Amino acid sequence: MTAIREFAITVRRASTKCAKVGHSSVSVARSLRKLSPTAFKTLRRVIAKVEHLDILGQKIRLNEREQESNKVIMAVKKEEISKGILDPSQFTPGQHIFKTLTEIRKSQIFNLIKRMPKGGVLHAHDTALCSTEYLISLTYRENLWICTANEGCDASALRFSKQKPQALNDCDWSLLSEVRAKYGSKRVDEYLAERLTLYPTTKFEDNNAAWSTFMNIFALLDGLVMYAPVWADYYYTALKEFYEDGVLYLEFRSLVPTLYDLNGTEFTAMDTVRIYVETLEKFKEDHPDFIGSRMIYAPIRNTNTEGLTSYINTLKEIKEKYPDFVAGFDLVGQEELGRPLRDFIDELLTIPEDIDFYFHAGETNWFGSSVDENLIDAILLGTKRIGHGFGLVKHPVVLDMLKKLNVAIEVSPISNQVLQLVTDFRNHPCSHFIADGYPVVISSDDPSFWKATPLSHDFYIAFLGIASQHSDLRLLKKLALNSIQYSSLSAEAQFDALEKWQAKWDQFIADVNENESNRGSPSQHLD
Amino acid sequence: MTAIREFAITVRRASTKCAKVGHSSVSVARSLRKLSPTAFKTLRRVIAKVEHLDILGQKIRLNEREQESNKVIMAVKKEEISKGILDPSQFTPGQHIFKTLTEIRKSQIFNLIKRMPKGGVLHAHDTALCSTEYLISLTYRENLWICTANEGCDASALRFSKQKPQALNDCDWSLLSEVRAKYGSKRVDEYLAERLTLYPTTKFEDNNAAWSTFMNIFALLDGLVMYAPVWADYYYTALKEFYEDGVLYLEFRSLVPTLYDLNGTEFTAMDTVRIYVETLEKFKEDHPDFIGSRMIYAPIRNTNTEGLTSYINTLKEIKEKYPDFVAGFDLVGQEELGRPLRDFIDELLTIPEDIDFYFHAGETNWFGSSVDENLIDAILLGTKRIGHGFGLVKHPVVLDMLKKLNVAIEVSPISNQVLQLVTDFRNHPCSHFIADGYPVVISSDDPSFWKATPLSHDFYIAFLGIASQHSDLRLLKKLALNSIQYSSLSAEAQFDALEKWQAKWDQFIADVNENESNRGSPSQHLD
Fold first, then answer.
1. Would strands B408-411 and B385-388 be described as parallel, antiparallel, or unpaired?
2. Do B346 and A37 touch (CB under 8 A)?
3. Spatial CB neighbours of A12, under 8 Å, sequence gap ≥ 6
4. How far apart are the first and last CA of chain A?
5. Which of A1, A28, A367 should one mutate to test binding to chain B, selecting the residue with the greatest count of B CBs within 10 A?
6. Which end of chain B is more exposed for a tag (fewer CB within 10 A), N or C?
7. What is the rounded average pLDDT of the residues A320-335?
8. What is the mean pLDDT of residues B358-371?
9. Residue A133 and residue A137: Cα distance in Å, rounded?
10. Would you say the pTM of this structure is higher than 0.90?
11. Which residues of B touch A40 (CB under 8 A)?
12. ipTM of the complex model
């Protein structure tokens, strides 16, 4: 009768525990029933208040001008939520982003968020940043070849070259300009636009299938963006597109690939970083109110010990040469198919302490798998932030540690949906992080691949679909501040960054209030 | 420069906090990097162990025989998970139950769970319990009329009557036997089987649409099951089907409707309960190893103050007459369309303290809505369990209170999927409850409407799709024990219940081990 004994022990423990705090759970419950309705309602208000105070951003105090803007923002938020409750099928965060992307652009909240200075993007991959329009424009450059199979129907690689590039398996090279001449630019552009995004598939058979398509885009892009002249331009354009979307700082992951050009120049990883640094300097000269950009070296996790050792050598080399530009280290690629962090502990612990970790971890729904437990290794390795952390709700101990250690969670809602981890954003685990005041930053991961704006779409989803209906401008401001506070910037650089952001924020608040008073003025004149 | 000041305060607070515990977060992180790989791995094991200990059921100690069975169970679980990781599209908990129901029946884990004594079902609605086959058999009884529109294509009501029943809007009455004669029994049965379940729609436009179809099933069933002779038989059959699925106790919600018969007898709510009590007695005589069944009176929440007052009168009356059978009170129906608990505080607080609450709360994905905040009212009203609690991860304060007050969460995974709250079970918030050791009971809500077994399908989903891969027989045993511990049964009755359950459990463990050793024996003979 083991179970009966266990059961008796449980009951005894429970009553001892209750006795310690001076009451049984039943008596607490019942004692509430003795309250007058007025007393109950007071208690209810207190508890609701305590709950609200835990919500991310609720402790921020808004000044009078901000309070005015907040009214405008909350009025439109309330309207979108009320419409959604009446007809949930029209509520955009309940649906797939591919169906709602354009609809969202019409939303008033979206347009407010778009104009808002949102701080920085701390989780994005360097070859998945730019708009499809820009990518297509790149394919009009001279000397670009495309490798196709199935009589031109299936493209698998792009490459700039004076002559026909080296033969590849399973496809034939043609000059893209000739392909355009043959099939018409419109058709070719449409084809490329589809191949360079995950559209139109909203429901892959599973997340492995989504990842496979996803990795194919990177493969197709490689020859296009790793062409040295394009590499610089792509980065400059990314910074520009992000800047225009209200992003003042970009901390991106890079594989730091080896570039090429038409002359057969032998490039090294160092050249790749040098081009980044030079381009950034140019961009900052052109945009003095921009905060900056830093790189996390993040090679593919599907490697072995030798591979990792070679990564570490590259890391040390680029960090030594560009200490201000290189923020830290990470490993990327589908976690399930790569190796878990625990396989590389020995090597990772040899990395010098001035290089911080920003590990991807828990981008999975397999609870208890070794991949899922990357979360434990990431936190124990002293990661400064967690990339994705989708599985964190399954790891209360890690959650507790990351709150105490002040480790931020980089949440990229749209990426999680497109890669099949969540369907309805209202069910995204980030609701829990926001509700319990965890340090969250909102990022966009690979906006290029889903035709989203650099950050506004993800902010919109977080604000309208993931956060509480009560979350207001304070959450938005907190998310912007977090993106500076949890960036890799030094404390001093963060204050400078904040100054730049604050100037734009004040302008934004003034604009919202001015627009509102203009909107209000005709009727005021009528009074 | 408000934000800069706020920011400075935040930074100062963070450093003060860190200083208090004697270190900064950075130094903790970095100090880990100074560990030797061996020391790191020890620490890693300790943290993983601490995490595992928090998981529901992990503290249970299995005896030797149970450990033997556990090996069998974990071998098949591991196999199903490994297959799933290789090809997630074949992993049943990642898909809609309507697509996998039959496939699941072939699973080895499912068949082990099916045979397992699972304790009690604590959340189910009394007219949504029986198999479709049984419902169809009921429609063959004499004097049953069906009201159809669109030339017989659309049924909206059923009723037993000697003559044609009173006319309804929008449909015409025919004798079902005549309809069968006209269209053929097979077609009619197939039609009814579809109308009495939510099949085949896996994706309703939104959860309002799912609820609307769902409520229509109840409406169609009303005239069939509220016929007094059927009422008794339906309940008896439900108990029998649950018993055969390894359920020894059933605590169900009932609207306590007024019944009717062919003679125009005037029934009251008291008669409805009397028939239940008499039927239960009969069932217990026929099945002396069955634990029992109790009723939670749970009328429709879409009402007003007068309605609630009338409910309370009925409640008091039935509780007085049948104190042992009536467990408590709840309100049911789609939370969004009904009234929130806070509207009825004054009335609810008048309910005598010997009547416990078992409130539905948080069966929604609208974070911060008044419906979502039913969770706060439920816990403050002293609810003994929370029905669904799907939104609990958005309410850390409520979660904290319910753990301290030992209030159980009644999780019905399949119901949540069918009613469009979750798509992939691996993303069900119950993962968090299990990971953090909250008191969870697994229930089936309305298994009739999705053709599921009375409890085994939900248990299977919880075990394979929601719990950790590490969760084993200890979780299954804990869930069974919880269903007794958190039932409304008195402490004494719980010990009796446990004795009945333990006998079956020991038999189950013996069977699993015997089967395994039989399976193993041929090859042993060959050695």
1. parallel
2. yes
3. none
4. 83
5. A367
6. C
7. 94
8. 94
9. 6
10. yes
11. 345, 349, 380
12. 0.92
